Amino acid sequence: MILDGATVLYGSASELRATLEYDFSEEKKLSYKNLTMEEIIHRLAIFVSRLWQIHVFGEGNTRTTAVFFIKYLRTLGFDVTNDIFAENAWFFRNALVRANYNDLKNGVHETTEYLELFLRNLLLDENNELHNRTMHISRVFEKEVDIENIKVDIESAKVDIRNELLSFSNKISEKTVQHAVEIFSKCGKDVYFGRAIVEDITGLKSSGASKLIKLLLNSNVIIPVTGHGKGKYRFR
Of the candidates 141, 157, 190, which is a domain's last residue? Predict the structure, then answer.
């Protein structure tokens, strides 16, 4: 969504082990002694962004990267939990994207600044505002928007989604409806998504995300999108 349909180049499957071992060995060589917290946070942002870009965990890569990173931070003496990751899952993923994306022709450079804001909240208990719109490469969301109209649109969509699902089957749970609304609130009607994004937004496992997508397809809430790889969809 923040890349206007573009994508990050992930690590080659044939080089996963070698790339992972290299990044881990480089991290082990580093010393955090005598560094300021700003410098420590910058280094940690680089490390986790590189780990995520290798894409060693396949489906659910962002979620698994977060779990690993939490455990790693604890070995460094930080008392961290999953709360901030859970509350800002979409921001964390998009911050990782921006840390690994370049479009030099259009003046877009990879940056860890957004990851560092996230980490300052996590490690220093700061309260920096974490807004996905600030990371959009075209900056279109920095323009003034009518928040009230956006809220109305989402509420209308929530009613429509609920009606579509319940007309398809009256046995659909409220949790399933909520998952569908969560995906819509993040993607809207113009952004296409796949199973990995559904997992990141809802917290569902791979099988659960696949079942949800199938249900949304069968109930005509979403439609397939062609030309962007297999398994991509958008809301009607």
Answer: 141
pTM (predicted TM-score): 0.56
Tokens standing for 230?
């297999």
User: Which residue matches tokens 């990141």?
Assistant: 200
The answer as to whether 191 is a domain residue is yes
Do residues 157 and 190 touch, judged by C-beta distance below 8 A? no
State which H helix or E strand residue 15 sits in: none
Amino acid at 202: T
Domain count, the chain: 2
> Which pLDDT value is given to residue 226?
81
Q: How far apart are CA 59 and CA 49, in angstroms?
A: 17
In this structure, of 76-80, 86-90, 132-136, 207-211, the range with the lowest mean pLDDT score is: 132-136
φ/ψ region of 95 (left if φ > 0, alpha if ψ in -120 to 50, else beta) reads: alpha
Domain annotation covers residue 5? no
Both tokens assigned to 20: 């992972």
Q: Considering only CA atoms, which of 147, 220, 155 is closest in space to residue 185?
A: 155
